[in-house]
Structures are given as structure tokens and as C-alpha cells.
Amino acid sequence: MNVFERWEPVDDLPPTPCAGFIVTASCMLRGPVIVAVYSGIVGNPPRDLEITFSSASAVLVHAEFVHPSIEEPNENLQPIGGDSGFRRYTWPLLKVTTSRWLDGWGGGQLAPFGRENYTHYQLCSLDQIVDVASLGDVSARWIPGAAS
Where are the domains of the chain? Predict the structure, then answer.
């Protein structure tokens, strides 16, 4: 079973889901850039979160209803919580601290970097799940909103 923890790459994330993601994947030479579209949620400021991975070995994008883990028990998914109307939604930015996906990779797939150097990020929107097998640094910054 996957084990999740909230990931908060910036201090002022709204307690809402993301409307979706814009994914530009270029793995290895330059890592993927993923824009979390927060501006598509009514009541959020007109800004989106640009997440830049310095390097990644895999980026998978699924409609949420066909994600491979859809039939697994996910009691430890992190809810948004609080008093908002979104308290039962899943926190949109997650680190997967125990990852069935990464643990299922063979030794040849992880060479020469080694399993211990990977971080599995799972990004959840209203209708998408993006999984990133990341190596190295991750940065995030607010940009003008795509849905504004």
C-alpha cells in the first residue's frame, strides 16, 4: 500500500483542490514542468503554481478514474480538511513515502541512480492524477493564472 504525506512546496497554498494540471515533460535533460491550475477553482486568487523538477525518470498522467491505484485501499490519503467546502477532497500535492510504483521497478530501471535517490510525487486534481519519479531538486513559484 502507498503511504502519502502532504507536500507543501510553498507556504501559501489554498485549502482547495486544483482544477487540473498542465504538464510539459522533458525528463532527464531538463526535468518536467507542471502547472497546478489553482485559478480554475472559484474563490481562489488568479494564480497557478508552477512546479519545476530538476530531473525525473518518469511522468505518468492518468484520468483519476483509471489510475492504477484506484482499486487499492487509500485510507492514508491526505484530506484538505479545515472548514472549507473542500475538506473531504484529497490534498492536491503529495509525496509518496512508501511507493508501490517505485518499489516495483527492477534494478536495471533504477541504475545508475539507486532507489534511495528517487522521490515519488503524486499530484491530484479534480480529474487527473500525475505521478512523477523525481531525482534531485524541486522548485515551485506562483505564476499568473491560466484560468483567469
Answer: 3-144
Place of cell 480554475: 40
pLDDT tens figures, 73-95: 666 778 888 887 898 889 999 99
SS (H, E, C) the chain: CCEEEECCCCCCCCCCCECCEEEECCCCCCCCEEEECCCCCCCCCCEEEEEEEEEEEEEEEEEHHHCCCCCCCCCCCCECCCCCCCCCCECCEEEEEECHHHHCCCHHHHCCCCHHHEEEEEEEECCEEEEEEEEEEEEEEEEECCCC
Query: Cβ of 13: how many Cβ atoms within 10 Å?
Result: 20
SS3 (DSSP) at 102 = helix
38-55: per-residue pLDDT in tens? 999 999 999 999 999 988
